[in-house]
Amino acid sequence: xAGQNLFFSKSDLAYAELRDRILFGTLPAGSRLAQYxxxxxxxxxxxxxxxxxxxxxxxxxxxxxxxRDVRVSVMNSTEARQLFEVRLSLDPTAAELAAQRRTDDDxxxxxxxxxxxxxxxxxxxxxxxxxxxxxHQALYRASHNDVLIRLLDDLWDKSDRYRRLGLxxxxxxxxxxxxxQEHHQLxxxxxxxxxxxxxxLMRGHITHSLTATAISxxxxxxxxxxx
Length: 227
Prior knowledge:
By secondary structure, the chain is mostly helical. It folds into 2 domains: 10-72, Winged helix-like DNA-binding domain superfamily/Winged helix DNA-binding domain (Arc Repressor Mutant, subunit A, Orthogonal Bundle); 77-222, Four Helix Bundle (Hemerythrin (Met), subunit A), CATH 1.20.120. 67% of the residues lie in helices and 3% in strands. It contains 10 helices and 2 strands, in the order H-H-H-E-E-H-H-H-H-H-H-H. The protein has helices at 10-23, 35-41, 46-58, 77-101, 104-115, 125-141, 146-168, 177-191, 195-207, 210-222, and strands at residues 62-64, 70-72. Strands 1-2 form a two-stranded antiparallel sheet. Keywords: DNA-binding, Transcription, Transcription regulation.
């Protein structure tokens, strides 16, 4: 895992490693954590691992049923929609601020990121998701609002589980050329300083995103959507 030298304790290392495995699906939703096996694979005792599990539990990424029975939290349409609703509020704000505050370095980073984008579909898979995340991260970091950036980092981390799930559901086969076009339009609006238009486009972009269609598919699968 990149950046291990940034961690200051074994508990930090265990937390970051387990969090990555959960968010990337290496530890699937609903799976049981074999704590002693994990501790051995991370070359540490069980104590720092359990400290990491407590942190993950507070974030809702694992469920502690008993002292020894810990599972990766299941994914469901309710959490997906809650994450989506918060993103619908924060990402347009970030786009608006980015249009007002972007620097030359921000513009160069956004333009480099948009050039690497691929359609977020099952065909392109993880490569597309990584490039998509890098683009949106470049955009919201141009807001230069540290609180907003931290909130969006966490929000995007937790939402990525649902994007990956979306690739496995029927929406994952859609061509999604509209998304690619809107990414380029967002950069143009931000570079031109058209803050209100950037925020409006971002809101529409989120409304028609893979996450939104994945939520509908999840609700159908769970029998929650009224037609």
